[in-house]
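[[Encoded backbone]]
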Amino acid sequence: MVAKHPQLKLISHKAVLFALRIYMNNKTGYCYPTEVQIAAFASASEKTVRMVLKKAVDLGLIERELHIPKSGRGYKNYSYKPL
């Protein structure tokens, strides 16, 4: 459980993961928010969001996959899914 995870003690860490949960699709579990969107929702910096997401992936709490547009134009983005 994220709320009691010993390596996620700070409220800002929990706020980032809660923000990610808000964006998740209830049927598939996937979500596609940007780091800017997560930061705005969690009232955290983008640097904090990147650090928390990396830590959550390393701890096996979420899965993150990079998507690059096939045309080479546009923005790359990540999809997230809880494990």
